[in-house]
Amino acid sequence: MTRTFETQRAALADVVAIPVTPFAEDGSVDPGTYRALLRRLLDGGITTLTPNGNTGEFYALTPEERRLVAELTVEEAGDGSAVLVGVGHDVPTAVASARHARELGARMVMVHQPVHPYVSQGGWVDYHRAVAEAVPELGVVPYIRNERLAGARLAELGDACPNVIGVKYAVPDAARFAAFARDAGLDRFVWVAGLAEPYAPSYFSAGATGFTSGLVNVAPSVSLNMIEALRSGDHPAAMKVWEQIRRFEELRAANGSANNVTVVKEALASLGLCRREVRPPSKPLPESERAEVAAIAAGWSA
């Protein structure tokens, strides 16, 4: 019987939250705080969670920590929410992580962009095919940051693996996204704007129906206001939210996104929700820059 993955596809056409991974004073993952942050998201109306995403410092976590984060997320989310577990690194590691996600009861995995310095387009297909074929029961979502990848390659992957159901597209070029989606099959995949709220209005105009968010950790209602406006076709309302989050996202994007996670954790720290510490190669904000982030977060929580 052919799987349709309707529930998973619907979950991707939404705010796809990327939770931070909080650390305790000794530098280890803090399970209690992580559960509390997840519960805040869920209670705030968020229903799709991506543990082990980049905002969760995927590449700075050990294999054991990545498993722990996935386990905590599935447990806290329960049956009423969708969990999209981030997997990646070498093929055996990615496959093992995907199978672990399946064992936990997660129904989708997001495959991180390959970090190998030599990525061929055919090799990109082979990499994702190996993961998708290992877990045919799960919906699979490639995370695309490679502007050279052709849409036809995604179509090729979809032909081989019908469980590839969506795409997190994170190339900062709306025109390229529009062309890529149409070359791959606009209606064939669920298109998730992988560069979050700043790019969501332009990407929705080209065919996206969901967007990822790190900001949602700080202010779930702001992200929900954005997607509600986009779903209703109210572009002025969406751009009003865009203006509201603009400075926060500019701070995250500065210097090649050096402070992408740092700014989110700083905002959470200013609200007393978790520690500000991040792991190298990220670095906490200097004291002189913390006040602006705190003021933005306070304005959203008022």
Q: Which structural traits does this protein have?
A:
302 residues; alpha/beta; TIM Barrel; eight-stranded parallel barrel
So, CATH architecture? Alpha-Beta Barrel
Q: What is the number of domains?
A: 1
Please provide the ordered H/E string of secondary-structure elements. HEHEHEHEHEHEHEHEHHHH
CATH superfamily: Aldolase class I
Helical fraction: 40-55%
CATH topology: TIM Barrel
Tally of separate helices: 12
- The total beta strand count reads 8
- Arrangement of strands in the largest sheet: 1-2-3-4-5-6-7-8
Structural class designation:
alpha/beta
DSSP strand content? 5-15%
Main sheet specs: 8 strands, parallel, barrel
What number is the mean pLDDT? Answer: 97
Summarize the structure in words.
By secondary structure, the chain is α/β, with parallel strands linked by helices. The chain has one domain (3-219): Alpha-Beta Barrel (TIM Barrel). Helix content is 50%, strand content 11%. It is built from 12 helices and 8 strands. It has helices at residues 6-12, 31-43, 63-77, 91-104, 121-134, 151-160, 174-184, 200-205, 220-231, 235-257, 260-270, 287-301; strands at 15-17, 48-49, 82-87, 108-111, 139-144, 166-169, 190-193, 210-213. An 8-stranded parallel barrel has the order 1-2-3-4-5-6-7-8, surrounded by 5 helices. Strand 2, helix 3 and strand 3 form a beta-alpha-beta unit. Helix 4 (91-104) packs parallel to helix 5, helix 5 (121-134) packs parallel to helix 6 (151-160) and helix 9 packs across helix 10 (235-257). It is globular. The termini are far apart. 47% of the residues are buried. Belongs to the DapA family.
